[in-house]
Amino acid sequence: MNQNTLQEGWEVVIGLEIHAQLATRSKIFSGSATAYGAAPNSQASLVDLGYPGMLPVLNREAVRMAVKFGLATGSTVAARSFFARKNYFYPDLPKGYQISQYERPIVEDGSLEIMLEDGTKKTIGITRAHLEEDAGKSLHEGLANASGIDLNRAGTPLLEIVSEPDLRSAKEAIAYLKKVHTLVRYLEICDGNMQEGSFRCDANVSVRRFGAPKFGTRCEIKNVNSFRYVEKAINYEVVRQIDVLEGGGTIRQETRLYDSTKDETRSMRSKEEANDYRYFPDPDLLPVTVETAFIDAVRATLPELPDEKAARFVADYGLSAYDAGVLTSSRELADYYEAVVAVAGGPACAKLAANWVTGDFSGAVNRDGVEIADANVPAAALAGLLGRIQDETISGKIAKDVFEIMWAERALADAVIEAKGLKQITDTGAIESAIDAVMAANPKQLAEYRSGKDRLFGFFVGQSMKATQGKANPAQLNELLKKKLDAT
Amino acid sequence: MTLHTRSVAELAAGLARKEYSAVELAQHFLSRIERSNDALNAFVTVTPDRALADARAADEARAAGRAGPLTGVPLAHKDIFCTDGVRTACGSKMLDNFVAPYDATVVERLHAAGTVMLGKTNMDEFAMGSSNETSWYGPVKNPWDLRKVPGGSSGGSAAVVAARLAPVATGTDTGGSIRQPAALVGISGIKPTYGRVSRYGMIAFASSLDQAGIMAPSAEDCALFLAAMAGFDPRDSTSVDRPVPDYVAELDAPLAGVRIGVLKEFFAHGLEGETGALVQAAIDQYRALGARIVEVSCPNLPLSVPTYYVVAPAECSSNLSRFDGVRFGHRCKDPRDLMDLYKRSRGEGFGAEVKRRIMTGTYVLSAGYYDAYYLKAQKCRSLISADFKAAFEQVDLLIGPTSPSPAFNIGAKVDDPITMYLNDIYTIGANLAGLPAMSIPCGFDGALPVGLQLIGPHFGESRLLAAAHAYQRHTDFHRRVPAAYA
Predict the structure, then answer these.
(1) A101 with A196, same domain?
(2) What is the pLDDT of residues B42-89, one digit of tens each?
(3) Degrees to nearest 5, angle at CA B244 with B240 and B250
(4) Distance in angstroms (rounded) separating the CA atoms of residues A225 and A233
(5) B269, B255, B364: which is closest to B309 by C-alpha?
(6) What is residue A451's three-state secondary structure?
(7) In CATH, what number is assigned to the domain containing residue B192?
(8) Which ipTM value was assigned to this complex?
(9) Is B218 annotated as catalytic?
(10) Which one-letter DSSP state was computed for residue A472?
(11) Which among A245, A274, A298 is the end of a domain?
(12) Yes or no, beta carbons of A53 and B104 under 8 Å apart
């Protein structure tokens, strides 16, 4: 029985089409800026508007980024690829066709490895990645009896990354989607911002009986804009398809939209209603040629990739594969972690640093939605805090409080410890006098303990710690308390 | 000698000598336009203010010692080239209200060269036609006989030059649209190598075939203007980054020893009337001038017309999708919804021939038909190109008729598209192969001029122009002007 099945006897088959908006400064076929959020149509040139006589000129930077992706996924980079026109009418598609790649894409036949929940690895095939231009946006809100068109996005470069139907559950699909998301940000070819639509995903979902020779009929779920919704949409769709099939029905090949408020997918158009896009080579553009020297130059700019980095973290810092995976999920987090380790004293504190970076630090970053670069606790400051734990100035428990204050006030650990008087008490005499006071104040409990009620030890730890406002070194306190309680 | 019968070189020389000013020259042609355009319907827009402003600027440039070879020479632009601030209608109701906020590269370069724009010329709608009868603005008349067509699609430019309403006019050639009208009105016209002249700002018909060129009385005039138009343009990815030769300096290259191939396929079918004999006489003249005449064959050339009528409509069906009533051009009144907006705007804005080609093009690109039509046509195109390549291993130039017949009557072929399409049977091959080609006048069949076509290898414009010039030094057909316009 496959662990991934949602319902017994059915195998889920998923392929993803990811649209990554390439982080070029200007559009793929015009000189207009690509920045998000500008006033409508302020970043649409005559080329973007599809004016008569206007011609596309390819932005080589988009080619460079596509090649980078190809190299990072072990793909074949085509020496010659072609742009084609995908013809259909829509108001936010100014030319009446989208320039895309069809028969010969720039990147083909690569793969990425994902880690499953049980720690095993699985290779997901990448069929192709091709360059294309985005369309504009139609706006239907706030306009009386009319629709508006914003062509700022028209002509923004996209890399459409198409996976093989290798994914067998929503969880696998998310793992793959996150892997691509991590990779494009490592490569600095996409900002990965899903809210702004610069990283979006269509999922092709089908189910079949285990052992069935052919795939089932698939449905395409369009444009789901968060990891969580992709997972929910796939799971909804799987259950829907199994229900239809178990009820004796058949699945129609169609495009479906996910409604996150109702958590369901709805039919948008069937295969029969689909456009005939009449693809043909775009005569306005020459074939895209990529020379070996260009590929070599791009290869030289590749950063350490997530998998390589994670393997190094395991080898150099003795981290678990899981921790290494979490820390390398973004280049910024990995860089932050390495900076903390470097300042805090190297591999000796690597595990402690990993716990803090993946724990309290990431928690605060996510809670407040800040960029790592802007965090109130920079790497050196966190390293300073870890130093105080290691030299036993404060306990791990107190350190959590110190961290929160550092985060809230952009303060350094030493200053917080000093100002709040949180320095750990390691002076034996001070701890002993606190213990003595507790014992004297609780004669009844002392007698019970000494008559054999061992579990009252915890009571004395708590009371003694309270008497030192939590500042006593826990190990020392335990040791001294045991000695005094047991001394009859 | 009257001003308007002078060649461009002669007009430029007169300006240089200050025999007349650019303003006087512009006024001379503007008054000729005023007098004759109603009968010819050759200009759709006349721009006297712009012409006089350009002319004043030209005179100032000359006074300041900044005059070039074309400074102050008046010209007309085919209404397919976008002109900043002046309507560009492309022969269509669809663009009757369209004013581009930019100049096409051709317009920009010729403006920078100091030329004086007289106006925009009539043309077949979106350059789709061989008689200028598909224009929303009505047919252009042939100055040699007002009952006849001037050819198309650059029919307005052809008529304007033939009647000397302008010394020179720009044109575009997708399947013969410069050469065929040049032949039918007795002037010279060159379609350069694909990629030689930028297509930026030129409204696209079939992008892989469209090429801008120039129409003027003589090959020498064409050389002067082509030099100013040609060259790489970073705004057109298909323009070629390659130095532009000095076409004028190379005009006098000797003809002796030049191998000229007579294309067998050009004489296989019926040439009407005197056309065959006149073309043969021109070939004999070339032999007499020292050229070596050889018979050559391009066996796949008969596939040109069917190949063209798949490729060109396919591209046009996509190129014309942008005319949807949303951002510019004709929009229907009170659309009920989006579909209604599309259907009525396009239905009302486009004429019958344009619709025919959009439908044909949509059909040949459709799922299930693509391989049988579009892909097969691309293969035929490759075969035709290969034939030309092989021919140019044997000869330096190819020669033949431009058109199977002289100008025909307005209305004679308008209801029979296939017969109309066959007008371009000799010109289409050069477009499919991207070769430079030109038409020059080689005699008269009765009162109507007949054109001789010369085709060169890629970037062989210099040799083409020199061969035409050599012929024109020994003939005067290119100097003849219809009596009513002399």
Answers:
(1) yes
(2) 999 999 999 999 999 999 999 999 999 999 999 999 999 999 999 999
(3) 140
(4) 11
(5) B364
(6) coil
(7) 3.90.1300.10
(8) 0.96
(9) no
(10) B
(11) A298
(12) yes
